[in-house]
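Notebook entry, structure prediction.
Reason for the run: the old model in the group folder had no record of what sequence produced it. Starting over properly, with the input documented here first.
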Amino acid sequence: MNLNINGNGLAGLKVMVIDDSKTIRRTAETLLKKEGCDVLTAVDGFEALAKISDQKPAIIFVDIMMPRLDGYQTCALIKNNPQFRGTPVIMLSSKDGLFDKARGRIVGAEQYLTKPFTRDELLGAIHRHVSTV
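New structure, fully documented this time:
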């Protein structure tokens, strides 16, 4: 899949947003759809894991603080699956602590964005970590 970043944005790029906040999911989805992305959403890690194996997103944004399965656990499960080990995972959090960032790295996250994130931060993460862009 060859993505043209000049003419049609990120057309067809599958991006997953996992967050228990409807507002965050909707904000990210709106921003990414404007760029042409195919956006998948999930309210928690359990819902996300089923969708990831079916849909195979190119990049995953995951909130840290979620019920049932938090973002660290979700990221670790994704990275422990050989099929998805190479899929970039970007942690989302309202906390900007060094400990949180370090813990994200330990479970295999590629990057850490602090909420509220900007359009440029989301797109920057995609451009930085998705090799086909």
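Summary: The mean pLDDT is 91.
The old model has been moved to the deprecated folder.
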